[in-house]
Write a structure and sequence with these properties.
The chain contains 13 helices and 20 strands. The protein is α+β, with helices and mostly antiparallel strands. α1 crosses α5, α2 runs parallel beside α3 and α3 packs parallel to α4.
Length: 470
């Protein structure tokens, strides 16, 4: 009888937390807004002919500039915001410290500035510790909001249904860890490991500030994480009503986490947009927009993708179907080899790469040397030169696109002649063609080809079940 009751309880938790209503304001597709003050930004890493690694970075330089001029409000939501180094790494940019100092300095310079940092419990190893930079921010008057992940749906129901029943009530304690820390030096608790296995995150990477008489937003794939500072990434900066839309989507995360943003101007009603337009997408709205882009592509159009993780079956099928219709595709993937000093076995990208390659779709691998090709970009160009660009935090996986993680992307509609589109296209062409001469951004498909059926079906089971970190 007891066993049957426990099984019933686990099953009930399983079903409910897979399909429960999302907190208000999530899974948002905001109105199309005029695209104002646009700039495409990228962090690019390549290998020289002599085997040295070189980088050019712009994303967090722009974030630091925006923070340094804010007068009224700064809201930053970042997944990884820490100095956890990982194994075998000693040449990182201290970006977490740079951002911390910038926020504290601006609060001191403008005492009336309201500043909020929303982040993921990963940065405290799920409650086992409080990093010094987060303590310093709070001491300076910057509100630090830790996302309440249990309010989200469960991507790993096999474990989470048990965890919710037995373990979530235990909470966690700082300074009582006794197990090795997989991300740093200070020991962590068993409860941190148990929470980690839920495999969910606030994976967003956004910034909103006032800039003069307007508001400016930044949406990116980049984390202010020291060990990630050599990664390749992309971002889009924009101003106007769309930045206030972005702020509203962050208000939803703050509210679900027990906080609230100061009252700010409303973005206003949406009028017809004549010219370049931008839209904020969160959670599953990113999947719907991306699938629509692929399904509506026509023969002669081009679709370019650069992606850190590609595993979502709907997206994979959409790529293959577009190819069959005569759409010209190019897919640039991270080889899923490097993970902060550790070596991975290539799942899921090499398995999806095999599938795409056999379908006749050109696939290339980023030429990484310890870092990751962390960009998340999808771009469609039709025969008339109209372009649709989607970029941001979301990998194209079940966990990132099916309302499990928190994610933020932007969708830009413009022509090939728009400066931001030209910059995005140039970014992709450099990586695909290894230009200019002497730079190696990418390698041919054969460099990481993997035709193992065992690993292919391992990927399929991991993607379908949620028993994965991607």
């Amino acid at each position: 009888m007891v066993g049957a009751a426990l099984l019933l309880a686990v099953t009930a938790f399983w079903v409910y937390h897979q399909y429960k209503p999302l907190p208000q304001g999530l899974d948002a597709a905001t109105p199309l807004r005029p695209a104002v003050n646009l700039r495409f930004l990228s962090d690019e890493t390549w290998q020289t002919d002599g085997g040295d690694r070189r980088m050019e970075q712009a994303i967090f330089d722009e974030a630091l500039r925006l923070i340094a001029q804010a007068e009224r409000l700064v809201v930053m939501d970042m997944f990884l915001f820490n100095d956890f180094a990982g194994a075998g790494s000693d040449d990182h940019r201290p970006i977490s410290s740079e951002l911390t100092r910038a926020l504290i300095a601006r609060r001191r310079a403008v005492p009336g500035l309201q500043a909020m940092v929303i982040t993921d419990p990963f940065n405290t190893v799920y409650g086992s510790l409080l990093p010094e930079h987060l303590s310093a921010l709070e001491a300076a008057g910057v509100r630090v909001v830790m996302t309440r992940l249990p309010r989200l749906r469960d991507p790993n129901p096999l474990w989470s249904s048990i965890w919710r029943l037995c373990c979530q009530w235990l909470g966690n304690d700082r300074d009582s860890g006794w197990l090795p820390n997989p991300f740093g030096e200070k020991p962590v608790t068993l409860r941190s490991y148990l929470r980690l296995l839920n495999f969910k995150a606030n994976h967003r990477k956004t910034l909103v500030v006032d800039e003069g008489d307007t508001w400016t937003g930044l949406v990116t794939s980049a984390n202010p994480h020291d060990a990630s500072s050599a990664h390749s990434n992309v971002a889009l900066r924009f101003s106007g009503a769309a930045a206030l839309d972005l702020l509203a989507t962050e208000g939803a995360v703050a509210r679900m986490s027990g906080a609230g943003l100061p009252k700010m101007p409303e973005p206003g009603a949406s009028d017809a947009v004549d010219g370049p337009a931008i839209q904020v997408l969160t959670e599953a709205a990113i999947r719907r927009a991306s699938l629509s882009l692929l399904r509506e592509s026509r023969p002669g159009a081009r679709v370019d993708m650069a992606m850190f993780y590609l595993s979502h079956r709907g997206i994979v099928d959409g790529l293959k179907e577009a190819h069959e219709r005569g759409v010209v595709l190019r897919v640039l993937l991270d080889p899923n080899r490097d993970a902060f000093g550790r070596t991975k076995q290539g799942i899921p990208n090499r398995q999806v790469g095999l599938e795409l390659h056999r379908a006749g779709i050109p696939v290339r691998w980023c030429h990484t040397a310890g870092e990751q090709c962390h960009s998340k970009l999808l771009m469609h160009t039709d025969a008339a030169g109209e372009v649709e660009l989607i970029l941001g935090s979301a990998n194209f996986t079940r966990r990132n696109l099916d309302n499990y993680n928190l994610e933020s992307d932007v969708r830009l509609l413009a022509t090939t002649g728009h400066p931001a589109i030209r910059q995005a296209k140039a970014f992709f062409e450099r990586a695909w063609r290894n230009e200019p001469e002497g730079r190696s951004y990418s390698l041919p498909y054969e460099a990481f080809a993997d035709d193992s059926r065992l690993r292919y079906w391992q990927y399929r089971v991991m993607e379908a079940s949620g028993l994965s970190t991607f």
